[in-house]
Design brief:
The protein is of the alpha+beta class and 365 residues long. The protein has helices at residues 7-20, 23-26, 73-81, 133-147, 196-209, 260-273, 321-330, and strands spanning 2-6, 32-38, 41-47, 51-58, 60-63, 69-72, 88-94, 97-102, 105-110, 129-132, 158-164, 168-174, 179-185, 192-194, 213-218, 222-227, 230-235, 254-259, 279-285, 288-294, 299-305, 307-308, 314-320, 335-340, 347-351, 356-360. The protein has 3 domains: 2-110, DNA Polymerase III, Chain A, domain 2 (Roll); 130-177 and 186-223, no CATH class; 245-360, DNA Polymerase III, Chain A, domain 2. It is 22% helix and 42% strand. It has a 9-stranded antiparallel β-sheet with strand order 14-11-12-13-26-25-24-18-22. Mean pLDDT is 78; it is low at 24-29.
């Protein structure tokens, strides 16, 4: 085997496999990277029970008699990630090992048991639907950012991705206490449920795709992305998800619309006045929202004006101080719409465009 690959192409391969198979999640120390020839291309592929990546690249192939070879993915990616800025990578077989030559430096990797039977029955682009990976990535990143803690560690439990009408995608995520929804244009044939570790992998996959038009295909086990003979997939694991539509019936409940900053500042002020308080009480009057907190050392009272669709008072409603402050602070836009469905149902908070929604649970007094 004698193969030469331009270094810029090698870096693309390294980034793709690093993003898809992070050691912390998938244990790539024992994962094999399969290398084979298809006409004038060299195909790199690897898989775990949860993911598959097939990545063909153009190469100068002088000799390739082997059906395929398999080396350690961690070793290959590690060597390439600390390589040089330019030049090329030469692949060859030397004394029963795979030799990587990078601008004079040589590395001999042991050959692993052949891994040609990676996946069977791969889908084709004709079976998929054309999507924008950037649009999908932006939606998922907004959802993940919302449910992440202050140190950006994910706290979500599950993520649901589903079609809305003929041209929109809705992503729904929960961290166990609140439920966040985001909509943006996109086409999806059926809904997808992802567990947290799969969601992290999905994010890495979308980063690998970058700003790319690709084809999406869903079967009973995998979510497939395909472009230019490159194939990526992650395994779909069915998860239970709350039927959030029953929690907020459309066009029902009592609505009040107000400035986001005014509400947020009011919550911050009473939090400063009563830093030990864990609960904030809301009551609604026509064109007015009242916030009250009580603690052993201090009490606080705030009023925030707004536009309502009702003429009668209602409430009180009780919320966890920290969760409510965090949720509203992560919403976007100048205005927020708050819709109340009663003392036992969550509060629906939406931005002006109604593309981002939050279900905030109520607590006892």
């Amino acid at each position: 085997m004698k193969v030469q690959i331009e270094w810029g192409v090698v870096l693309d391969v390294e980034r793709a496999f690093s993003d898809m198979f992070a050691r912390s999640q998938l244990g790539t120390a024992t994962l094999g990277l399969n290398i084979k020839r298809e006409e004038e291309h060299i195909v790199f592929e690897a898989f775990t029970p949860y993911a598959y990546l097939r990545y063909p690249v153009a190469a100068d192939i002088t000799e390739f008699e082997e059906e395929s070879i398999t080396v350690g993915l961690d070793s290959f990616v590690g060597i390439c990630s600390y390589g040089v800025a330019e030049g090329s990578l030469d692949l060859s077989i030397h004394r029963g090992k795979c030799r990587l030559s990078i601008n004079g430096s040589k590395y001999d990797l042991p050959l692993l048991p052949n891994g040609t039977a990676f996946m069977s029955g791969l889908p084709t682009m004709e079976q998929g639907e054309l999507i924008s990976s950037l649009s999908l990535a932006e939606s998922l990143n907004k959802v993940v950012h919302f449910v992440a803690k202050d140190d950006n560690r994910l706290t979500l439990q599950n993520v649901l991705i589903e079609p809305v009408g003929d041209s929109d995608i809705r992503m729904v995520a929960t961290d166990g206490s609140t439920l966040f929804m985001h909509e943006n244009p996109g086409i999806l044939s059926e809904k997808i449920s992802l567990q947290p570790h799969i969601t992290k992998q999905f994010i890495r996959l979308l980063r690998t795709l970058k700003e790319r038009e690709c084809y999406l295909y869903i079967d009973s086990n995998f979510l497939w992305f395909m472009w230019d003979d490159t194939i990526m997939s992650i395994r779909l694991t069915p998860v239970k998800f709350p039927d959030y539509r029953k929690l907020y019936p459309a066009n029902q409940g009592k609505l009040i619309v107000m400035e986001r900053e005014a509400l947020l500042n009011a919550i911050r002020r009473i939090n400063m006045a009563c830093p030990t308080a864990k609960t904030v009480k809301m009551t609604c009057a026509p064109s007015m929202l009242t916030l009250t907190t009580e603690s052993e050392k201090a009490d606080a009272y705030e009023e925030v004006s707004g536009e309502t669709d009702h003429r009668e008072d209602h409430g009180p409603y009780y919320f966890n101080f920290h969760n409510l402050l965090k949720s509203i602070s992560k919403m976007e836009g100048e205005e927020l719409a708050l819709r109340f469905y009663g003392g036992k149902s969550p509060l629906l908070i939406q931005d002006k465009s109604r593309s981002r929604s939050l279900l905030a649970p109520m607590t006892g007094p």
